[in-house]
Design brief:
The protein is built from 3 helices and 5 strands, in the order H-E-E-E-H-H-E-E. 34% of the residues lie in helices and 42% in strands. The chain is α+β, with helices and mostly antiparallel strands. Strand 2 and strand 3 form a beta hairpin. It is globular. The longest helix has 19 residues. The chain has a single domain, classed as Trna Endonuclease, Chain: A, domain 1 (3-Layer(aba) Sandwich).
Length: 120
């Protein structure tokens, strides 16, 4: 497996642990619909929370919020709609980003709640 895939998996594991410690209930991870993937699907305070995880090993890249482009957001929203329909979910939904920066033994996690809205 490529190094960037291992870093991504490590970041998702860190994000899951971080969210669980904050009281989020992890429903599933890496849920796929067509060409889209939802990294983490959780519930928190009676909301469905869709989480995009961005893992970096250097702070020199773009910010996590910038990395979740409009086309990426549209794919996530489309996949979320399919998930909600398939599972017959009746909860408010929000979209978060969790940024994980791994530099040696130092890990920094940033949670951006309500990072983007579905396009109408």
């Amino acid at each position: 497996m490529a190094d960037h895939n291992l870093v991504g998996e490590q970041g998702e594991a860190i994000a899951k642990d971080y969210l669980q410690k904050k009281g989020y209930e992890i429903i599933t991870a890496n849920w796929r619909f067509q060409k889209a993937e939802i990294d983490i699907i959780t519930t928190y305070k009676n909301q469905l929370v869709i989480v995009e995880v961005k893992t970096r090993s250097s702070a020199e890249f773009e910010s996590p919020k910038e990395a979740v482009t409009i086309p990426k957001q549209k794919r996530i929203v489309k996949a979320t709609d399919a998930y909600i329909q398939e599972k017959n979910i009746d909860l408010e939904c929000r979209f978060d980003i969790v940024s994980v920066l791994i530099q040696g033994n130092k890990i920094n996690v940033e949670h951006i709640e309500d990072a983007f809205s579905p396009m109408l």
